[in-house]
Amino acid sequence: MPENRICQLFNISYPIIQAGMIWCSGWELASAVSEAGGLGIIGAGSMYPDVLAMHLKRCREATSAPFAVNLPLLYPQIDEHLHLIIENKVPIVFTSAGNPAQYTSTLKNYGITVVHVVSSVSFAQKAARAGVDAVVAEGFEAGGHNGREETTTLCLIPQVRKATALPLIAAGGIASGAALYAVMALGADGAQLGSRFVATHESSAHQSFKEMVLRAGEGDTRLSLKALTPVRLLKNPFFDQVVAAEAQGADAAQLAALLGRGRAKKGMFEGDLIEGELEIGQISAGIDEILPAGELVRRIWDEYLHTKARMCG
Fold it and tell me: pTM for this one?
């Protein structure tokens, strides 16, 4: 798809982006997606600097295709991560959870393509003013940390498209080629998929978490912890504790104490389905098999082409 702006910007074959999810997006997943023609992303938000260095090295060894790093701007050791990204000549960085103006110019000075994740029109405009090369507009359906506005993807994409001329990547509730076609019809240039790539062989998510995602049904996730930092969780006993605390009027400090340290690692990476935090999107209700990441990329693209032919025929 040479005329596609996202494919041109990232030098990839298909406008299919794998989200940089904490505890789920290591070098195995990123390299497999990139090798298949999409854009794989290493999720640096759950990695100490030495761990990120290892993942960058292994990803370079596994693929010569472009890949990216997702860099949450609130990460406490961000300066060390930035040094590693620059030193290793990572071609593309997706920033999130912070002010895009803080590091965009630094990254771009080293020739790095910068993409920022937003959940609203105002944040998209702020990212454009900061000089980013593209934005990911993530709707309310998405897993993990999300916006307080609760704007759904189908509402958000055309609004962001109207507000900025930047290349636009849609995210939230996308797990198929038909959904890719839908968001591109609304003005997106490509799509970022997170939850669907959790359920792949190369994902570093624990097998027990992957299998729980397959069992998820309609209504089994909910956006929670809005008084602290909104995050969509799969319902489990820890989720029940969050609901109970919120019902009793817990403030941000009390919710932070409940969340503690390592709760997401315990759930998604170590497979503790009782006490762990399980971040996944609404689309989990439609995921019913674990696939190799490369096969998933090809299936999504084939379905996109089939949907396009059907709609245009």
Answer: 0.94
